UniProtKB/TrEMBL annotation:
<dbReference type="GO" id="GO:0005886">
    <property type="term" value="C:plasma membrane"/>
</dbReference>
<keyword id="KW-0547">Nucleotide-binding</keyword>
<dbReference type="GO" id="GO:0005524">
    <property type="term" value="F:ATP binding"/>
</dbReference>
<dbReference type="Pfam" id="PF00664">
    <property type="entry name" value="ABC_membrane"/>
</dbReference>
<feature type="transmembrane region" description="Helical">
    <location>
        <begin position="21"/>
        <end position="45"/>
    </location>
</feature>
<keyword id="KW-0472">Membrane</keyword>
<dbReference type="GO" id="GO:0016887">
    <property type="term" value="F:ATP hydrolysis activity"/>
</dbReference>
<feature type="domain" description="ABC transporter">
    <location>
        <begin position="335"/>
        <end position="546"/>
    </location>
</feature>
<protein>
    <submittedName>
        <fullName>ABC transporter ATP-binding protein</fullName>
    </submittedName>
</protein>
<dbReference type="InterPro" id="IPR003439">
    <property type="entry name" value="ABC_transporter-like_ATP-bd"/>
</dbReference>
<dbReference type="InterPro" id="IPR039421">
    <property type="entry name" value="Type_1_exporter"/>
</dbReference>
<feature type="domain" description="ABC transmembrane type-1">
    <location>
        <begin position="21"/>
        <end position="303"/>
    </location>
</feature>
<keyword id="KW-1133">Transmembrane helix</keyword>
<dbReference type="InterPro" id="IPR003593">
    <property type="entry name" value="AAA+_ATPase"/>
</dbReference>
<feature type="transmembrane region" description="Helical">
    <location>
        <begin position="128"/>
        <end position="154"/>
    </location>
</feature>
<dbReference type="GO" id="GO:0015421">
    <property type="term" value="F:ABC-type oligopeptide transporter activity"/>
</dbReference>
<keyword id="KW-0067">ATP-binding</keyword>
Length: 546
């Protein structure tokens, strides 16, 4: 394990270290107590029953009962501790992975499908938790059982104990052979589960177009295909698992034959008591059951290791937070781009050596054909993308050195696509920010968006359904405009913001922009001429690239 990976693993375990140690201590005590039972039975047979000693019979039975009760209590405590650790760890890991994902650059979401990201957060993290609060605990329990059972067996009969262990090298060889196979199968399972989540998510999200085109069979085929992939891989898993389990079961059967043959011979010769062979029979199961359990745990272990690796693939690449970044409350002069180059794919720059100067008090229109980098340029100015070369400066400060949270207060953006949440209109506008309700109402009145506050059916407390299906295109656009302007940003970016608005709303919106432009930078991305608004600077992205 690499140093960074070890650091992340340690950070996962650290908050639960004390509880883990207490749990391990209880496991050891519980294991010792449970392994005393066969020895107590040996004493009952060899001392109490053989000598017809009622006093010792009652004494050993009481001890047997006390051991059972104590073991049960310890198991309840152990179960509570590790259930708490598991649930709390799952919560923390999901939250940590979620925060890591949402802080990634936009390019991350271009490379990863939505279903895959959801699958990693929802489906795979329980396997990571299982590694620390399930599998690892089982390993400790089984190893402790194996060692203690071996010690007790060795004190009862050294020869049978040593002979029984001769099969362990063969068990190791079988496990060593099948480990990489199970690891590969589990990786494939996780990848297929990600595909299933993604196809299902796409089909549900695009349900309207499926219904419009009556493309039910097309959508079903896509879903059926990935389900068949899963079934085929499941058959492979069952086949390999059955072979490995058959081999291991045969190896576990050999010690029982040795005990019956050699142990029975020693009883006949008088070198071993009846109680001794009964106890050894129980302890052989206690000795090899952990080995058998470890072989089954091994399958879960390989699955958990793959899930952990996929978790670290995301959180392990997080950028360290800067402690010396600059908190910027206001731009005094301009935004400048100096020789900015950006590409999504190597050797295919969408923006090439671009230099711009965007000044306070100006309304700037950025034009250009589709796919020429207009929206990409905005993402770079907002800090969502990092250019391969060149510098973006707010006044004379490199955007890389500006605190990201102060940057978001400076910028208000209306994206080309509408993004809404299943919540109230007011919550969709505020987005968790401390914005007074009166500010929203006043802004609606200034912009002429009165249908969002005075309508009999619709108001700021109305719930937006999935994807805003209960709103018109114009109402959705108005909400995104209010969202962008509600916190009074100094930089206003409008990506095809007039789309879906009626002429009355367009005119009011443009008049408002003209009124507030004095201390702001207003950037409009539009294919067409902007009505009702005087543009101070027109920039064609294609012509601006050197």
């Amino acid at each position: 394990m690499k140093k960074d990976e070890f650091r992340h693993v340690y950070s996962i375990i650290k908050p639960y270290m004390i509880k883990e140690i207490i749990g391990f201590f209880i496991i050891i005590i519980s294991t010792i107590i449970s392994l005393l039972n066969p020895y107590i039975i040996k004493l009952i047979i060899d001392i109490a029953i053989a000598n017809k000693d009622v006093h010792n019979l009652i004494r050993y039975i009481i001890i047997f009962a006390v051991i059972y009760i104590l073991g049960t209590i310890l198991n309840i405590i152990q179960s509570y501790i590790f259930t708490y650790i598991g649930e709390k760890m799952l919560y923390d890991l999901r939250l940590n992975l979620y925060k890591s994902v949402v802080n990634k650059e936009i390019t991350f979401f271009n490379e990863k499908q939505t279903g895959e990201i959801m699958s990693r957060i929802l489906n795979e993290l329980p396997d990571v938790v299982n590694l620390f609060a399930g599998t690892f605990i089982n390993i400790i329990t089984q190893v402790a059982t194996l060692i203690i059972a071996f010690v007790i067996m060795f004190t009862i009969n050294r020869d049978i104990t040593i002979i029984s262990l001769l099969v362990t090298p063969m068990i190791y060889i079988v496990l060593r052979y099948y480990n990489p196979i199970f690891r590969n199968i589990n990786l494939k399972f996780m990848q297929i589960n990600s595909k299933i989540s993604n196809v299902l998510q796409e089909n549900i999200f695009n349900i309207k177009i499926i219904k419009y085109l009556k493309a039910y069979k097309f959508a079903q085929r896509r879903f059926s295909f990935v389900l068949h992939e899963y079934i085929n891989k499941r058959f492979d898993s069952v086949y390999i698992n059955s072979i490995s389990n058959t081999l291991l079961s045969f190896l576990f059967f050999i010690p029982s034959l040795i005990l019956l043959l050699y142990g029975g011979y020693q009883v006949i010769q008088g070198r071993l008591t009846i109680g001794g062979i009964v106890a050894l029979s129980a302890y052989i199961n206690q000795l090899f059951q952990p080995i058998k359990s470890l072989s089954n745990i091994n399958i879960d272990l390989q699955k958990s290791k793959v899930a952990l690796k996929r978790y670290l693939e995301i959180v392990g690449k997080d950028k360290k937070e800067k402690t010396d970044d600059i908190k910027m409350s206001k731009i005094k002069n301009c935004i400048t781009l100096e020789n900015v180059t950006f590409s999504y794919q190597k050797d295919n720059s969408i923006i090439n050596n671009l230099s711009l100067k965007l000044e306070i008090g100006k309304i700037i229109r950025i034009a250009g054909a589709n796919g020429k980098g207009k929206t990409t340029l905005i993402d770079i100015m907002c800090g969502l993308l990092t250019p391969q070369s060149g510098v973006v400066k707010f006044d004379d400060i490199d955007i890389k050195n500006i605190n990201i949270y102060s940057l978001k207060k400076l910028v208000g953006i209306v994206p080309q696509n509408t993004y809404l949440f299943n919540d109230t209109i007011k919550s969709n506008i505020k987005m968790g920010r401390d914005i007074d309700d009166n500010r929203i109402t006043t802004l609606c009145e200034k912009l002429g968006f009165n249908d969002l506050i005075n309508d009999k059916i619709l108001n700021l407390s109305s719930i937006i359904t999935n994807n805003g299906d209960n709103l018109s295109g114009g109402q959705k656009r108005k909400i995104t405009i209010l969202r962008a302007l509600a916190h009074d940003p100094q930089i206003i970016i409008l990506d095809e913001a007039l789309t879906f608005l009626d002429d009355y709303s367009k005119e009011n919106f443009c008049k408002y922009l003209d009124q507030i432009k004095k201390d702001k930078i207003i950037i409009m991305i539009s294919h067409e001429d902007v009505p009702y608004l005087d543009i101070d600077l027109n920039i064609n992205v294609e012509n601006s690239q050197n």
